[in-house]
Design brief:
α3 packs across α4 (148-158), α7 (214-221) crosses α8 and α9 crosses α10. The longest helix has 21 residues, at 243-263. The chain has twelve helices and ten strands. Helices cover 34% and strands 14% of the residues.
Length: 345
């Protein structure tokens, strides 16, 4: 298991902007939003459909909700499209990346890949600790892989968040699934966070290595061959995926489904895997194929990025024991934490 944390020292960055949280936002004076009716149907992730208001007004963002989840969105008229586009570009949004905690197969030193294995006791503790580290950072939407260890990590982390919103899995796989999972309370919807699971965020598929003991595999094929399968960029294990192949699907999904949410001002958490997250970080940090193969991510350690004006900026290295030593907050994030403190007191 990787234990080193990839980090980079980043100075304090000042930024202006209002607090974005679908629950708190309405409590902060003048509002520029309206509640979208539950009859407005938008599907993301598994269903790939996106619907827009065909009336006189245009919805100003791509929303990640389904028919059972109402959301709050900026709304603009056609005459204000340019102003809306400019506002989108200046939006600031937080992006949190978390590699899942230790799984039961990590504990046994087995190649896991796309085998669906739950967290170990240590993994549960790591997920809870990850939640404490991000408990003051806004989260409006969560993306996970289709694998239970990533989903467990996301759910356990959110139990520690001070906003106390409840993550709710979206089920768009069929009309019946959507119908049966509807929420009929508007207040409850406002206290919920939609969670989208998608296979494209899965760990890379290790092919014929899945389920094999890592030491026994090295003994059978040789350490150099196994190291090449695990750490090269474009050499896949037998009948499996290379990091390059994993990056193709993970980055395409990030750009198609997640980046538009960030552009609209949504604060996003992604709970996924070592290789799918390395692929996304390669895109965010513009790493080369040689740089990414040496990138190591610790389990259960959240990384924070700020997305603003089309650029991603890492906001610190999560290696310190205190929050002040972990994340360099922007003014917007500092305001969010201040509002959380006021709500508590």
């Amino acid at each position: 298991m990787a234990t080193a944390v990839f980090h980079q020292s980043i100075g304090t960055h000042q930024s202006h902007g209002h607090l974005y949280d679908s629950g708190i936002h309405q409590e902060l004076g003048k509002s520029s939003v309206r509640l979208i009716s539950k009859a407005f149907d938008v599907n993301v992730g598994l269903s790939k459909r996106v619907c827009y208001d065909s009336g006189k007004r245009n919805i100003g963002v791509i929303r990640a909700s389904s028919s059972q989840t109402s959301v709050i969105d900026h709304v603009s008229s056609p005459s204000k499209n340019k102003e809306s586009d400019s506002r989108k570009k200046s939006n600031e949004a937080a992006l949190i990346l978390i590699r899942h905690g230790e799984s039961l197969w990590n504990e046994k030193n087995l190649f896991t890949g796309c085998v669906d294995v739950p967290l170990s006791k240590k993994g549960v503790e790591e997920a809870i600790e990850a939640g404490k580290r991000i408990s003051n950072i806004p989260v409006d939407m969560i993306y996970t892989s289709a694998l239970i260890r990533a989903q467990m990590t996301a759910m356990l982390a959110m139990t520690q968040h001070r906003r106390k919103k409840v993550p709710v899995m979206l089920h768009n796989e069929s009309e019946q699934a959507k119908s049966w999972s509807q929420i009929f309370s508007e207040d409850t919807k406002l206290q919920s966070i939609p969670v989208v699971a998608d296979w494209r965020l899965n760990e890379r598929m290790y092919g014929e290595l899945q389920g094999l003991n890592k030491q026994e595999t090295a003994d059978r094929y040789g350490k150099e061959q196994v190291h090449e399968w695990r750490r090269s960029y474009d050499v896949p294990p037998p009948n499996g995926e290379s990091l390059e192949m994993c990056a193709e699907r993970a980055v395409a999904y990030f750009k198609d489904q997640i980046e538009p949410q960030l552009l609209s001002g949504k604060n996003i958490m992604i709970a996924a895997h070592g290789n799918s997250l390395r692929s996304i970080i390669m895109y965010l940090d513009k790493l080369t194929s040689q740089e990414v193969i040496s990138l190591e991510l610790s389990t259960g350690i959240p990384m924070l990025y700020i997305f603003k004006e089309g650029k991603f900026t890492r906001r610190g290295s999560p290696a310190a024991p205190t929050e002040a030593g972990v994340y360099a907050y922007t003014k917007k994030l500092a305001l969010y934490r201040q509002k959380l403190d006021e709500m508590v007191h």
